[in-house]
Automatic annotation (TrEMBL):
Keyword annotations: Activator, Nucleus, Transcription, Transcription regulation
Annotated region (Disordered), positions in chain: 204-233
Organism of origin: Candida glabrata
The protein's assembly and partners: Component of the Mediator complex.
Gene behind this protein: MED8
Protein name per its UniProtKB record: Mediator of RNA polymerase II transcription subunit 8
GO terms under cellular component: core mediator complex; mediator complex
Amino acid sequence: MSGMNGALVEDIKPDYSGVPGPALDSVRMRLAQLTHSLRRIRDDLSRADLTQWYSLQSQINVTLSQLMSVTSTLQHFEDTLDSTIVYPLPKFPTTSHESLLTTLLRKKNIPEVEEWIKDAIEASGVDTNMMRDDEIEKILEKNNEDSKWALEVFAKEFEKRESNGDTADDLDVLGNALKPVKTSVRQRAQSPFQVEDVLKYMSRGEVDRGSSSQEGLSTNNEQSGDKDIIMAD
């Protein structure tokens, strides 16, 4: 009997016609980009020498744009994804991929999401048990308006980043271009002239040999190759 059941299972061919391939593939690509950006930020923050602020800020802006793209994609395929039911086929390796199967078949939110929802409810200060249905509807409507406004802002920012070419691959070029250039000791700016030396030069047409201003003047002349010019009345 068991052999007959096994033969029947072998003869059953899965029907993939109802699988929302375009929707899942689009979400997968957006999530892959977002995961790559988040991993890159994590690696930058875990280094002993922190990345320059401008590079980190650009990477965060790109990540926010990608997060907005994921949100837009999920909203676009919301009806399709909500009506899709996930179930394992008979040949699915449940033993080796138990964690994946548990995640796909999970109906409740994960503990982290439950904590986020709890914190959001506490932060809002709204007690649904003490409010009427029309009051709750007004709050939800206001929240939807705020979410729509935020999505429009992110969409505009994303379009700007796309037009400027600020992608994740361009950040390395930006960071290398803006790195500070090391200078030698002789190339650094010299200390300014002392007031006393300026007054002596104006009155006598010369500067004391041991003064710091004379040393700075000599150093500057050595670097530029110019000769000393003494101006006198």
